[in-house]
Amino acid sequence: MKILFRAASKRRRAAAYLVALGGAIGPLLNAAPCMAQTSSRRALAEALFRQARDLMSQGRYEEACPKFAESQRLDPGGGTLLNLAVCHEKQGKLASAWAEFQEALAQAKEDDRLDRVSLAEEHIAALEPQLARLTVTVAEPTPPGLVVTVNKTPLGSAAWGAKMPVDAGTVVIEASAPGRESFVKNVKVEDGESLSIEIPELSAVPEADAEGFAVTDRGVGSPREPDHTAAYVVGSVGLAALVTGGYFGVRALQESDRADKTCREEYCTTEAGHRADENAVFNGWLSTIAIGVGVAAVGTAAYLYVSEENATQVALTPALGKRGAGVALIWRH
Fold first, then answer.
1. Average pLDDT over the chain, rounded to an integer
2. Which of 73, 136, 184, 309 is the most buried (most CB within 10 A)?
């Protein structure tokens, strides 16, 4: 007993050693992929930065700027950000460049890079008078849930009525709210120009009446087209079930014929006959169930087709009664 006890203790100790070793090595193993991933991102960022510098030196700003932007995303740095700002300035996107120089200025001050501080301030001062500015105002009352975007970028309510720098070119202003017609306006903005755009009160979306007609101030619009998709799907299922029921029905009859050759009343004289008798009953049940499902599905499909075709006459509505709740089918004539 002592030997067995000691052997078991050794095994438990060995297991404890393995657990402790795993606890010490585990974090290192988990950290290794993270370190490798970080190193890979920095390597890619460096490669993109060098490619972008070469492209910018060739005047290919359309290709260089996205590479600078991706390099900055992968491995943010003040130098990359300054190069991105210069690239956008040369590309003619003065507002983007101005915003990036502002960010680079803050980063340079934090890093105590006086050379970069001076460079960013010079560019900011030169860009200020050249910026195109846009003011977006919203008519009162503003509907609940109003969303305003400028070139797909959300514009918070605090920025409504404020002058904002925008890149020269076509600017798309959009506004939307639940239950309201959307507003979209494209404006052309030049460098140094200031424009003001007012988003008018959004009109309510025309509601549909019970018969499916669009109700507008001009009266009743065109009825909606009936959609028979649900009827076709349910009908197809029903037909498939009927075919399946017919198949099992034929099988049931065939097995029944085999059973009749050796079975009389409640007894069968052979095992094959007994098996055929059981198969006949089983296939008969399958046939009954499948045909029942098929009939119900085809009937439902017919109802769906008729109710969709005559949408002005059929309606389902919740019903409450003394003994409970349910759904009532109402026909309108």
1. 78
2. 136
From residue 276, give the alpha-carbon distance in Å to each of 75, 151, 259, 288: 76, 75, 5, 18
Pairing between strand 263-264 and 183-189? unpaired
pLDDT digits (tens, 9 = 90+) for 150-202: 999 999 999 999 999 999 999 999 999 999 999 999 999 999 999 999 999 99
CATH number at residue 154: 2.60.40.1120
Spatial contact of 13 and 6, defined as CB atoms under 8 Å apart: no
Name beta bridge partners: 263: 268
The residue segments making up the domain with residue 145 are 131-205
Angle formed by the axes of helices 94-111 and 78-91, nearest 10°: 160
d(CA 101, CA 124): 6
β-strands 194-199, 132-138: how paired?
parallel
Residue 280 CB neighbours (<10 A): 21
Question: Could you give the CA distance from residue 35 to residue 299 in angstroms, rounded to a whole number?
Answer: 65
Q: Are residues 32 and 147 in the same domain?
A: no
Integer angstrom CA distances of residue 175 from 152, 188, 221, 272: 10, 18, 26, 78
